[in-house]
Structures are given as structure tokens and as C-alpha cells.
């Protein structure tokens, strides 16, 4: 039996008897991702985070001298220890920059090594911060002691929580790199984490200056 269909331009076929047939519709099965869409959305997230820290800084600015007869920042803060902790976080920012340079060179191994070093600096920062909190609480200077300590713990612990999530994100991304390599999606995730990590460094510089350095002033 002879073929009685004529192929259409859209890929469908029409019978010779003249009956009408709806053309077929084809869908491209690829990821639809607007250019720079993720980075723009992440910038919006960072701006919302800025508002959170701005509120915490404002609260500390109002309550930072309300000691309620308790210890002051000059009596509690160990500046050499805090300076060491600041060094850990700033070095982690530098090592993350090296990871991004290796990513630009498409060097997967180098990227993973510098990310691991960044994570170790982040863990060192958190360890010192937890030690500081434990020491303050053991001396009776917990967050419930005064408005000053409440605002201090709220601000510093919120930053520490962000660093914790950043480390979890970094570890997850290292597994993704090991499984899929430096694909476009992973490069985009590395760039987002880079912005987040450097943002935390900037916030910590504000904490170190506004809370610790000014806190030891009479």
C-alpha cells in the first residue's frame, strides 16, 4: 500500500483527502536560565542581609552602654584573641580569592585545595568565637546579664551563624565540584559563595571596629 501522507514543514503529515490536522508543537528541553539571573537575585538577598545587620548594629548602638551594673566591654573583651580571630577570617577571604583564580584557570584540583583551606580558616574562626562565648558565660556575662550583653551576643552570634552556613555551603560545593567538575552551574555557585563570604568579612570588620575596639574605650 502506497504512503498517502505529505510531510509538513513543522514535522506533521497531512492526508491527501484534504482533511485539516493541527500542526505539532515542539518544546526545547533545555534549562531556561536568564543571563546573570542568579547573581541579580543573590544581590537582592545580600541587600536583605544588610538590613538585618543594620538593625543589629543599631540595637547595639543604642544598648551598648547599658551595663545594668554589670561588666563593661573594657573588662570583658580580649582584644589580642579577637584580633587573631579577625586574622583567620581575613585570611579565609584571601584564600577564597585564590580559589576563584584557579577556577578562572579551569584548574579543578587547585580550586578544591584553596576552598579546603578557606574552610579550615572558617572553622578556626568559629572555634575561637565559641571559646569566647563560653568564657564570657562562665564568668556570668551571658546574654541575660545586661542589655549590653544581649545586643552583643545577638550581633556577634548572628554573624557566626552566617559563617556556619557559609562553611556548610562550601563543603557541599566541594562535593559538587568533585562530582561534576567546573561546569557552568558550579562556577556560578562559586561566584555566589564568593560574594557571600566577602560580605561576611566586611560585616566582621564593622563588628571588630564598632563593638570590640570602641567597646574597650572608657
From TrEMBL:
Xref: Pfam families: COX3 (PF00510)
GO BP term, example: aerobic electron transport chain
Segments crossing the lipid bilayer: 42-62, 82-101, 113-131, 151-175, 196-217
Record's subcellular location: Cell membrane
Assigned keywords, A-Z: Cell membrane, Electron transport, Membrane, Oxidoreductase, Transmembrane, Transmembrane helix, Transport
MF (Gene Ontology): cytochrome bo3 ubiquinol oxidase activity; cytochrome-c oxidase activity
SUPFAM superfamilies from the UniProt entry: Cytochrome c oxidase subunit III-like (SSF81452)
CDD domains in alphabetical order: Ubiquinol_oxidase_III
Any GO CC annotation of this UniProt entry: plasma membrane
KW DNA-binding (keyword) present: no
InterPro entries, sorted: Cyt_c/ubiquinol_Oxase_su3, Cyt_c_oxidase-like_su3, Cyt_c_oxidase_su3-like_sf, Cyt_c_oxidase_su3_a-hlx, Cyt_c_ubiqinol_oxidase_su3, Ubiquinol_oxase_su3_dom
The organism's place on the tree of life at top rank: Bacteria
Residues in Heme-copper oxidase subunit III family profile domain copies: 36-216
Mode of membrane association: Multi-pass membrane protein
NCBIfam families tied to this protein: CyoC (TIGR02842)
Family: Belongs to the cytochrome c oxidase subunit 3 family.
Role summary: Cytochrome bo(3) ubiquinol terminal oxidase is the component of the aerobic respiratory chain of E.coli that predominates when cells are grown at high aeration. Has proton pump activity across the membrane in addition to electron transfer, pumping 2 protons/electron.
PANTHER family: CYTOCHROME BO(3) UBIQUINOL OXIDASE SUBUNIT 3 (PTHR11403:SF2), CYTOCHROME C OXIDASE SUBUNIT III (PTHR11403)
Oligomer status and interactors: Heterooctamer of two A chains, two B chains, two C chains and two D chains.
Name of the protein described by the UniProt record: Cytochrome bo(3) ubiquinol oxidase subunit 3
Gene for this chain: cyoC
Amino acid at each position: 500500500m502506497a504512503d498517502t501522507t505529505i510531510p509538513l514543514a513543522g514535522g506533521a503529515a497531512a492526508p491527501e483527502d484534504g482533511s485539516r490536522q493541527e500542526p505539532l508543537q515542539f518544546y526545547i528541553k533545555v534549562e531556561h536560565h536568564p543571563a546573570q539571573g542568579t547573581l541579580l537575585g543573590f544581590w537582592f538577598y545580600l541587600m536583605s542581609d544588610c538590613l538585618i545587620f543594620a538593625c543589629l548594629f543599631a540595637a547595639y548602638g543604642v544598648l551598648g552602654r547599658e551595663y545594668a551594673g554589670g561588666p563593661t566591654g573594657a573588662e570583658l573583651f580580649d582584644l589580642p584573641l579577637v584580633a587573631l580571630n579577625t586574622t583567620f577570617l581575613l585570611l579565609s577571604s584571601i584564600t577564597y580569592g585564590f580559589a576563584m583564580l584557579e577556577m578562572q584557570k579551569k584548574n579543578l584540583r587547585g580550586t578544591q585545595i584553596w576552598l579546603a583551606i578557606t574552610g579550615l580558616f572558617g572553622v578556626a574562626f568559629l572555634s575561637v568565637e565559641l571559646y569566647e562565648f563560653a568564657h564570657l558565660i562562665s564568668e556570668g556575662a551571658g546574654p541575660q546579664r545586661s542589655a549590653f550583653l544581649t545586643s552583643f551576643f545577638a550581633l556577634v552570634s548572628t554573624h557566626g551563624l552566617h559563617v556556619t552556613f557559609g562553611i556548610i555551603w562550601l563543603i557541599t560545593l566541594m562535593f559538587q565540584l568533585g562530582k561534576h567538575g567546573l561546569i557552568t552551574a558550579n562556577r556560578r555557585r562559586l561566584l555566589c559563595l564568593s560574594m557571600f563570604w566577602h560580605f561576611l568579612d566586611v560585616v566582621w570588620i564593622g563588628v571588630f571596629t564598632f563593638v570590640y575596639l570602641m567597646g574597650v574605650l572608657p
